[in-house]
Design a protein that fits this description.
This protein is an alpha/beta fold. It has a domain at 1-70 and 199-260: 3-Layer(aba) Sandwich (Rossmann fold), CATH 3.40.50. It has seven helices and ten strands. The strands form two sheets. It has a six-stranded mixed sheet with strand order 6-7-8-3-9-10, with helices on both faces. Strands 2-1-4-5 form a four-stranded antiparallel sheet, covered by helices on one side. A hairpin with a 5-residue loop joins strand 1 (4-14) and strand 2 (20-30). Helix 2 (92-102) runs antiparallel to helix 3 and helix 6 (201-207) packs across helix 7 (241-259). The longest helix has 22 residues, at 106-127. The protein is globular, with a radius of gyration of 18 Å. It binds adenosine-5'-triphosphate. Adenosine-5'-triphosphate is lined by residues 15-16, 21, 39, 41-47, 217. Adenosine-5'-triphosphate (ATP) binds next to helix 1. Belongs to the ABC transporter superfamily. Pfam families: ABC_tran (PF00005). Residues 6-241 form the ABC transporter domain.
C-alpha cells in the first residue's frame, strides 16, 4: 500500500458555538483510491469536503494532502456539485476551459498555449460524449449533458484529487446510471483520487473502493467498508445478488444511524 494521499488525524470542526459539525475523524485515502461518503442529511459530508480542499480549517486535528498540511484552497483538486453551475454566456468548450484561465500555472500560459488547451478540452468532451456540443450554450444542453460538461471542467487541469458533492443528485435515474459509467471510465483511464459525497447507496457501492458511513451530527465515521466487487464493474452487476446484498447492508446501517 502506498503512503496516504489524504489524511485526517483526530479532525473536528465547529463552525460556531453550536458544537462540532464533524468530530474525531481519522482516516487515510490512498492516491488513486475512489472513496464515497454516505450518511444522513446534515452529518457533515460537505464539511469533510471543505476541510479536504482547504475551504475551512479544522478546529482541532490535522488535515494533510500529499504529505503537506492543508492551509488554504487546494490547487490540485477539481470539484463538481449537484448543480452543474456552467456560465450561461460561455459555450460548453469555453466553460470547460475556465479553470485553465484561472488556476496556476496554466493561467499564465493560457494565451500562448490556448490551442493546446482547446485540444485537451475537445478530447475530454469527446470522452464523455459531448463532441458535438462544444459550441452549444448551457441552456441548449440537457441536465445530464450539463453535468458531463461540469465533470470535464473539474478534470481539465488534470487534478490529482477530484471532489464530487452529489454530482448526479438532480438527474433522473437513467441519466444518473449513464454518468456513473462515464465517471467509472474516466477514473479507470486516469486514476485520479476521488472523494464522492452521495445519498445514493447504489452509486457509492458501484463506484467506490471504500465507503465511509457517517453518524448523525456531530458526524463521525462509524464504518469503513471496503467494496471488493471486481473491476471493471459493468452496470449489469448492480442487478446481481452480491451487489444487492451490499446495498441492503449499507441501507440497514444508515437506517440504524437515522433512528439512533
Ligand atoms: N457555514 C456553516 N456555518 C454554520 N453551520 C454550518 C455551516 N455549514 C454547515 N453547517 C452545519 O454543519 C452540519 C453539517 O453540514 P454539512 O453540509 O457538512 O452536512 P451534509 O452531510 O453535507 O448534509 P446534506 O446531506 O444535507 O447535504 C449541519 O448541521 C449544518 O447545518
Amino acid at each position: 500500500m502506498s503512503a496516504a494521499f489524504v489524511s485526517f488525524d483526530d479532525v473536528s470542526l465547529a463552525y460556531d458555538r453550536s458544537g462540532n459539525a464533524i468530530e474525531d475523524i481519522n482516516l487515510s485515502i490512498h492516491e488513486g483510491e475512489f472513496v464515497a461518503f454516505v450518511g444522513p442529511s446534515g452529518c457533515g459530508k460537505s464539511t469533510f469536503m471543505k476541510l479536504c480542499t482547504g475551504l475551512h480549517a479544522p478546529t482541532q486535528g490535522k488535515v494533510q494532502v500529499d504529505g503537506n498540511p492543508v492551509t488554504g484552497p487546494l490547487k490540485i483538486s477539481g470539484m463538481a456539485f449537484q448543480n452543474a453551475n456552467l456560465l450561461p454566456w460561455r459555450t460548453t468548450l469555453d466553460n470547460v476551459l475556465l479553470p485553465l484561465e484561472i488556476v496556476k500555472p496554466y493561467c499564465h500560459q493560457f494565451r500562448k498555449r490556448r490551442e493546446e488547451f482547446v485540444g485537451w478540452a475537445r478530447k475530454l468532451l469527446a470522452t464523455v460524449g459531448l463532441a458535438e456540443y462544444e459550441d452549444k450554450y448551457p441552456w441548449q444542453l440537457s441536465g445530464g449533458m450539463q453535468q458531463r460538461a461540469s465533470i470535464c471542467r473539474a478534470l481539465i487541469h488534470q487534478p490529482r484529487l477530484l471532489m464530487l458533492d452529489e454530482p448526479f443528485g438532480a438527474l433522473d435515474a437513467f441519466t444518473r446510471e449513464e454518468l456513473w459509467c462515464v465517471l467509472r471510465d474516466l477514473w479507470e483511464a486516469q486514476r485520479f483520487t476521488v472523494v464522492l459525497v452521495t445519498h445514493d447507496l447504489r452509486e457509492a457501492a458501484f463506484l467506490a473502493d471504500t465507503v465511509y458511513v457517517m453518524s448523525r451530527r456531530p458526524g463521525r465515521v462509524i464504518e469503513k467498508r471496503t467494496i471488493s466487487l471486481e473491476r471493471p464493474r459493468p452496470l449489469e452487476m448492480t442487478y446481481e445478488k452480491p451487489f444487492i446484498d451490499l446495498v441492503q447492508a449499507l441501507r440497514a446501517q444508515i437506517g440504524e444511524v437515522r433512528s439512533s
